[in-house]
Amino acid sequence: MSADGRAPAVDGQDLAVDGQDLAVDGQAPATDSWGPDLLGDGYEQQVLELGADPDGEGDVAAVLVRRAVRDGERVAGAVLYLHGFSDYFFQTAMADELAAHGLAVYGLDLRKSGRARRPGQTAHYVTSFERYDEELERSLALVAAAHPGLPVVVLAHSTGGLVAPLWLDRRRRRGEVAPVAGLVLNSPWFDLQGSSLARGPVTQALRVLSRVRPLRAMSSGSSVYGHSLHTSGTGEWDFDTALKPLDGFTVTVGWLNAVRRAQARLHRGLDVGVPSLVLRSDRTHWARSHSDDVDRADTVLDVRQIARWAGCLGGETTVVPVVGARHDVFLSLQEPRRRAYDVLARWLRDHRLGAAAGPS
After folding, report:
1. Which domains does the chain have, with CATH numbers?
2. What pLDDT, in 10s, does the model give residues 227-281?
3. How close are the terminal C-alpha atoms of the chain, in Å?
4. Band of the pLDDT at 56, cuts 50, 70, 90?
5. Which of 131, 156, 261, 336 has the most CB atoms in a 10 Å sphere around its CB?
């Protein structure tokens, strides 16, 4: 339980256990399989077939989405974006902002997430985050093939902000850092919410239950965060609520155990091999109903935990609290969102990643 008596939350959900190089595998990446995407004109997608699911839910795939480069835009690098839990790539405003800094934008819907989830599959369910390495490597190869010799920035949000640094640490240990040249984490999920006294027993229970009932559901309460974002509630963002439900997807024991294993690995220390920027809100506000505070704080994660564990990324790490930001700092209200983009622009410029917009 958290300090205020609430169960720990996962990307906006209150949880309680219910009573019950450019080649991949020796082959050059395909570059001619792009088709229309649900985001409409200017966006295309490519389905990455991944074969049989090691976790036993049929054949799995990931979906890579790209924003087409507009006339007059200069491309000096690329971004590979990773979403969080109960999420998918839909951030066209963010993509336009990145494009203004000379970055071609790609978003990856991981297996069983967003566009990639297939009938009968448990949303986001994996028992190890290392499963994601396959689609991450294939996506990176496609991005690198499309922009040879240019740097790639990995930008990841929430749970994606836990997936990305572990993947990059494994790449660095294999001596395969390039073409990745920078890492930007947007409110990464570095630890389980709640008191330190509760985290230990919860983690031990997950280890035991995940061996016998990995798909056991954990109940979730209403998410004020999701409703604060969407146009049907009080927000300004119009996303597909079948792919990003306002109340979030159900969390499973096996998936949360994979999260805890990944967090434990992070806590032992990583070296992602590139400079990192960590953006977060300046404060956390737990809430079950909407208020002005909900729109100006992280209602999902404890920002003190992000600050505590950011040093585990290794190398050069810049941590910037954005006053008044939401959990997804790039979906914040206009003023904090602008501040977050200004911080990102300075960091990109300081690290010579991207370029000012202008003719090619």
Report:
1. 9-350 (3.40.50.1820)
2. 999 999 889 999 999 999 999 999 999 999 999 999 999 999 999 999 999 999 9
3. 54
4. very high
5. 156
